Amino acid sequence: MFNNFLRSILLLLIFSSSWVIYTSVEQRKHLDQFSDDYIWQLKTSIKNATRNFLMPAKNIVKLGAYLIEQDLISLDKPESLKAFVYPFIETYPQFNGYFVGDQNKEFWFWHNTYAKNYVYRIQTITRNIEKQLVEQKNFLDKDRNSLRKSTPLSPEYDPTTRLWYKGATAIGGFYWSDVYSFDSDREHLIPGVTASYPIYKNQQLMGVWGVDIVLSELSNFLFDAGSSRATDLVIFNEQEKVIAYSGFKNVEIKQRLITLKDLKKNTIKKALTSYQEHGFNEFYFSEQGIRYLVSYSSLLFSDEQEWHLLLVVPESQLSQNMGNDLYLTALFAVFVLIISLLRFVYLLRQPLSISVQKLSAKNLVDKDKIMKKTATNTSVDE
User: How far is Cα 143 from Cα 149, in angstroms, rounded to an integer?
Assistant: First the structure.
């Protein structure tokens, strides 16, 4: 009776521990899926934000070119150019400047400098009465009032020789520049890219509109996006030049723009090395006892440029603790299952062993009786 009760208890333990093992495995899968979903959401939001960060420049240069083609704004009417860019100054702080150059080498440039003694600068290159090119700069305060003007000089700047100009005219359409510095001071480099678009009138090239985009604003966005989970985010191009980096605040840029090799963080180096070894776009690795989730993907924001996005996310303490708890629970359930199975098998074998013993004893008794009977018959015959 007791053995039957014990068998029932063991069966309950076997089924319970099996169920615990199954649910632990399934919950671990869900936990991994949760991490994967977080990576996907973060990656998608960053790609969308990067496109939103850059793409308005494309629309602005196209619109500027169209307005010049329609004679609604022009280099001859600088006030019309200012009126055109005013709405964008506050809306898009990432845009460092708006400019237009023509085939006659005339040039107009609204520059957001954020210098100590002035806020904006308008640079113009126009032809005087003698048809000579003259360059002048007008320095403005935060209310766009003129503070002073520079002495008119012979210009050293030729817009038609610049990459943003030649690139747009060569393509005959929208052009993205490579990453370069907006400041010629080697001790104070300002990484950025330029969007430009050609201006045509009666199928004749008239000039090019352009917008400068400072990439430090994009790095600030990446920092805000990854700071909540200590996430490292890097956007870089085919030449491994760093477009934006969530840790840019801790990187000093001197002499040249930084590349992936200049990022000293071990987790980024290990993630890039692992990707180069196996080529998987999403994977895990451990560093100093911490599990990291990695995503490597292309960031194609237009037909002209392809960048890459690298995410390195430390698994959250909550997820890690939950994963460890599930592992320990499953391990304990396996231990209980093994002990219960062994004990259950033993109890099943016990009655069988007793039956075998009884059968063996009966066989011995029967054999003894047969031998005695045989011996008795033998005595009678004699």
Answer: 16
- Edge-first strand order for the sheet with 290-299 is 242-245, 232-236, 307-314, 290-299, 282-287
For the chain, give every domain's residue range.
7-53+217-322, 54-214
Tokens 């460092």 locate to: 96
| Dist. CA 217–CA 183, nearest whole Å | 16
Structure tokens, 336: 């209980």
Task: Tell me the per-residue pLDDT of 128-145, one tens digit each, with 9 for 90 and over.
Answer: 888 899 999 999 998 889
Sort 149 into a burial class: Cβ within 10 Å, 0-12 / 13-18 / 19+.
Answer: exposed
Q: Token match 């890097």: residue? A: 234
Rounded Cα–Cα distance for residues 298 and 60 (Å): 25
Pairing state of beta strands 191-201 and 180-181?
antiparallel
Tokens of 377: 């018959």
Least confident of 34-38, 208-212, 270-274: 34-38
Q: Does domain 7-53+217-322 have CATH number 3.30.450?
A: yes
DSSP assignment letter at 357:
H
pLDDT digits (tens, 9 = 90+) for 191-244: 888 999 999 988 899 999 999 998 887 888 888 877 766 788 999 988 888 888
CA distance 368 to 13: 47
Give the CATH superfamily of 54-214: PAS domain (3.30.450.20)
Same fold, 7-53+217-322 and 54-214: yes
- The token pair at 96 is 């460092």
C-alpha torsion sign, points 169, 171, 176, 177 = negative
Nearest-10 Cα torsion for 236, 242, 245, 250: 160
